[in-house]
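mind reviewing this fold:
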Amino acid sequence: MNASDLQKIIDWMVDGARSAATPTQMMTECCERLVQAGVPLWRVGVFVRTLHPDIFGRSFTWRPGTEVIVANADFDVQDSPQFKSSPLAILYATEDEVRYHLDDPASPNFPIFDDLRVEEVTDYIAIPLRYIEGPIHASSWTTKQAGGFTDEQVTALRKIVPALARYVEVISLRRTALTLLDTYVGNRAGERIMGGQIRRGHTETMNAAIWLSDLRGFTALSDRLPAETVVDILNHYFDCQVSAIRAHGGEVLKYMGDGLLAVFPIDEYVGDAQHVCSRVLEAARESRASVDALHYPYGEAVERFRFGVALHLGRILYGNIGGGNRLDFTCIGPAVNLAARLEKIAGRLHRTIVASSGFAGICAGGWADLGEFPIAGFSKAERVYGMEDETPAA
């Protein structure tokens, strides 16, 4: 192949592959350029391990004339027979290049090779993608050319891989940053931080429905159970809420021991407050059912759980608050304080779901008037509502 054509591809990737808007488009264009330059590629794969709580890694697979296929692998893949009996397992173990001629009877009988032979692949080479700080990822290259890749074509692939690794590393680092921000501060907050809202005092006001919940009897639970068991219980308990909150448009901002603070933004210009509050109430009903069904075997006993959630509506201050260079992206304001007070009232009344008059007044949901209550720190008493379908627990 022409050395200048290869260098153009390398320069294009080093410059950020600007003609490709997405990683999948970059992979398609890169492979097509290599084919045009004289490397007869058939199936190409890029395999990147990720820093994600649920996803071990991602694979990107290209074939001529088709869309790049993106797949996620969970953490169990490391122990799967398919991975253990694969050339990539060898690459990760040795951190070195792996190559096999598939028309050689002595080549290993890997399951992936059976599929490739059906496609009439003749040669397979896996080349490490080395990040700057040392982690190893992988690329695989195959051809249907008779006799496999030539020495010149293999040299071209080896030259292209460092530029590919730099591109993949940059994209991976950005994805990792977004994943970590999404995991630890929430999606909307993460977007704002990545967008440059990182200085103390960078805040904005937002109209939102506020969710503040608490696990009943958590102090006693923590006192009589081992810490590891308590953590496991909390994870199961939060699972009962977070999936419902996110499915109905909310964002979890903070965990506070057994407490959870979430917000459901309201676009006041669209006038969707009633719709948002209806979704919040539906999430609360789903969480109530999930927590009620939750049981945790411990020793000879089975732990059962109850929680309370306060729902309110109001304006909040949303942004960076903290001291020195340690900041927290959170929300504050009288509306958040009132929600916290309402959650305590829910506990005193042995109720699961309570709402302020502002929330209940805009969200038809079968509310029962529980009366007016003085609120610490507020000049006026607040009328509190509970669900008609709920019998207060003893």
